[in-house]
């Protein structure tokens, strides 16, 4: 082989060797770089919300807030016009007035005129008894002396007993007029008044529902009806997000859970705010067979399920909003 051919052969060998070395170096660098890069798990900030709705159907008369407004507990949010409730209130108050009048009548007893009339009847019955008693005593003496027949004596005795019964009846009527209604009737009248007042309290509860107030502080996220629209019982009027009650939710495959436990603190990044913060894992649960999972049976392993992991900030985060991405890096 000539010197020129040997030189070309050596050059080819050197080129192949150099290329191989470059490939090995690049592969090694890539392997080391990939080995250092952590797995990136993306989550999302969420917030607790509650819906404002009323117990009574009606028409939206006024909306005191709009989307984006911050409200405090007790603030008026909306006013509902419900004429039917006002009518029921008038009926309930009338029922209370009627029941109170009946209860007062039972407590006061009969009128003075009725008492006076019963007293006069009692006096009349006593006068009749006095005459019947004198007649009976005279007839009895004559009967014992055999001056009159037994029939006359029996008639006088019957008249005397009848007069006694009339006095007792008149006395009962007079006592009833003086004493008024029986205790049972008075209690029944009082119960009727209590029932009517309970109906008023019930309607008052519905009246209060025509003015919707905030139960807890938060931010109005959605307002559903417009002024003038009808809403039914339980129809949502608006949603309020409690901005102080936030957490992040991550969907993590089970093969990435080995270093994550309930109560553990995680270091996360919120790209929208360009901050890193600490969050504490509060719950972990299986998302079920319908959730995203990774099939690995083809490689002789197992199907990997997805778990929902929730974590709450250990300290308040300024500017954080629901829906912001949260990044968790795993080594």
Give an account of the 3D structure.
The structure is a single chain. This protein is an alpha+beta fold. The chain has five helices and twelve strands. The strands form two sheets. The protein has a six-stranded antiparallel beta barrel with strand order 1-8-11-10-9-12. A four-stranded antiparallel beta sheet has the order 5-4-2-7. Helix 2 (83-108) runs antiparallel to helix 5 (183-209) and helix 3 runs antiparallel to helix 4.
Structure keywords:
6-stranded antiparallel beta barrel; about 45% helix; 12 strands; 5 helices; single chain; 4-stranded antiparallel beta sheet; rod-shaped; about 325 residues; alpha+beta
In short:
It is built from five helices and twelve strands. It has helices spanning 3-36, 83-108, 112-144, 150-179, 183-209, and strands spanning 39-53, 58-63, 70-71, 76-81, 211-213, 218-223, 230-231, 236-253, 265-270, 275-286, 306-313, 325-330. Helix 2 (83-108) packs antiparallel against helix 5 and helix 3 (112-144) packs antiparallel against helix 4 (150-179).
């Amino acid at each position: 082989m000539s010197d020129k051919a040997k030189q070309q052969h050596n050059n080819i060998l050197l080129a192949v060797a150099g290329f191989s070395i470059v490939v090995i170096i690049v592969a090694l660098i890539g392997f080391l770089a990939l080995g250092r890069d952590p797995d990136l798990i993306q989550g999302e900030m969420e917030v607790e919300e509650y819906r404002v709705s009323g117990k009574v159907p009606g028409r939206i008369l006024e909306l005191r807030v709009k989307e984006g407004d911050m409200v405090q507990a007790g603030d008026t949010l909306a006013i509902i016009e419900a004429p039917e409730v006002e009518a029921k209130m008038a009926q309930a108050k009338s029922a209370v007035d009627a029941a109170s009048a009946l209860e007062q009548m039972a407590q006061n007893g009969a009128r003075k005129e009725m008492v006076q009339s019963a007293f006069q009847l009692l006096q009349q019955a006593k006068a009749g008894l006095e005459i019947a008693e004198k007649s009976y005593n005279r007839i009895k003496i004559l009967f014992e002396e055999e001056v009159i027949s037994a029939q006359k004596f029996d008639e006088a005795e019957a008249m005397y007993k009848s007069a006694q019964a009339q006095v007792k009846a008149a006395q009962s009527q007079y006592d009833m007029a003086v004493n008024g209604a029986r205790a049972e009737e008075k209690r029944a009248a009082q119960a009727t008044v209590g029932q009517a007042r309970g109906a008023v309290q019930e309607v008052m509860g519905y009246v209060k529902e025509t003015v919707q107030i905030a139960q807890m502080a938060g931010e109005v996220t959605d307002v559903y009806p417009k002024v003038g629209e009808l809403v039914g019982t339980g129809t949502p009027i608006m949603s309020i997000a409690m901005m102080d009650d936030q957490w992040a939710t991550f969907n993590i495959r089970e093969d990435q859970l080995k270093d994550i436990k309930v109560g553990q603190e995680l270091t996360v990044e919120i790209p929208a705010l360009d901050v890193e913060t600490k969050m504490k894992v509060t719950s972990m649960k299986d998302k079920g067979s319908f959730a995203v999972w990774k099939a690995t049976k083809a490689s002789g392993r197992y199907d990997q399920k997805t778990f929902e992991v929730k974590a709450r900030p250990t300290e308040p985060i300024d500017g954080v909003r629901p829906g912001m991405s949260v990044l968790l890096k795993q080594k």
